[in-house]
Amino acid sequence: MTLTGIPSIGGTFYLAYSEAEKANKRQKMAAIIVKGGTVLAAAHNKIIDSDPKALYGCSIHAERAAISLAPYNISGSKILVYRFYRKNDELASSKPCSSCAQAIVNAGISWAYYIDSDSNLIKVRSHSLFE
């Protein structure tokens, strides 16, 4: 399947899966930012607290990590967010949290794609992530 302005979902999916495999958290998430058919950034979620005694470390969500890695103005771009279950690698709901949704809007990203609870790919205007 090909969506207008985005590389084939198959290609993006495998890039996201490869990125999510790097996650050091219970949830494997990846975010891909695309503009004009070019992948600008790919990132995964991660714990950055190095204290082995910490029950929950400070974490960076994949969406925020991708925004910070984008090499130039990402206004008008699209973000694809994927989450995979660690136990079986199946897709899981990946709608961005409200904090990440705000970062997406603030960055000027126009469209967000995420997986819903039925494993469907959802496309929404970024400001609609708050609904």
Compact description:
The protein is α+β, with helices and mostly antiparallel strands. 22% of the residues lie in helices and 29% in strands. Strand 5 and strand 6 form a beta hairpin.
Structure description:
- Helices cover 22% and strands 29% of the residues.
- The protein has helices at residues 9-20, 62-69, 98-106, and strands spanning 28-35, 38-44, 46-47, 59-60, 78-84, 91-92, 111-115, 121-125.
- It starts with 8 loop residues before the first helix and ends in a 6-residue tail after the last strand.
- Mean pLDDT is 82; it is low at 1-10.
Question: Strand percentage, roughly?
Answer: 25-35%
Judged by helices, strands and strand pairing, the structural class is alpha+beta
Gyration radius from CA atoms, angstroms: 14 Å
**Terminal Cα separation, in Å?**
27 Å
β-strand number: 8
Mean pLDDT: 82
What shape does the CA trace take? Answer: globular
Helical content class: 10-25%
Provide a count of the helices. Answer: 3
Tell me about the biggest sheet? 6 strands, mixed
> Unreliable runs, pLDDT <50, ≥5 residues?
1-10
Order of helices and strands: HEEEEHEEHEE
